[in-house]
Write a structure and sequence with these properties.
Structural class: mainly alpha
Low-confidence stretches: none
CATH class: Mainly Alpha
CATH topology: Hypothetical protein af1432
CATH architecture: Orthogonal Bundle
Oligomer: single chain
């Protein structure tokens, strides 16, 4: 499947939840942009984009099962759900394993291994900060302590006028 086909599949999976759909589109847009600006190779860019599209795949089940979308629940449930979701896409098992890892760690900011992981964290943070109205101090702290890509830093500073 192409990125567009995986996006369509995820939009359908979101079952009309406009917030979830808008969120995944926004995270994917930032991830795609940062990845391309950082010069990722084609394979890493593909994994990043699939992970960005599916990173919150567990939100519906978390709402149903736990009554919330707490980060830890998303990571635990998402890593399992995304494997089944991607099973018919023609992706290789190694690709699905990496996407599942990223989905299962996208709220974990320690031991970030790989540009795909780093950029997913940065893109998701930008969207979460915008949606939730994070303080300028929170955003500055994230830039200083977590962000590593020059493109992500530039974009975050531009988005939040820092």
């Amino acid at each position: 499947m192409t990125i567009a086909q995986i996006m369509e599949k995820m939009i359908i999976f979101s079952n009309g939840n406009i917030h979830d759909i808008d969120h995944l589109i926004n995270v994917w847009t930032y991830a795609k942009t940062i990845g391309e600006l950082e010069g990722l190779d084609k394979q890493t860019q593909f994994i990043l984009e699939v992970a960005a599209i599916t990173h919150d795949i567990a939100c519906p089940i978390c709402r149903e099962k736990f009554g919330n979308t707490e980060a830890k629940h998303q990571e635990e449930e998402g890593a399992v759900i995304v494997r089944e979701f991607l099973s018919d896409t023609g992706m290789f098992s190694e690709q699905i394993d990496r996407v599942a890892f990223l989905v299962g760690h996208h709220h974990t900011f320690s031991n970030i291994d790989g540009a795909d992981y780093q950029i997913l964290v940065e893109a998701d943070y930008i969207v979460n900060a915008s949606e939730s109205g994070y303080s300028k101090q929170n955003i500055e702290n994230f830039i200083e302590k977590i962000m590593k890509t020059q493109s992500g830093i530039r974009i975050t500073r531009a988005v939040f006028c820092l």
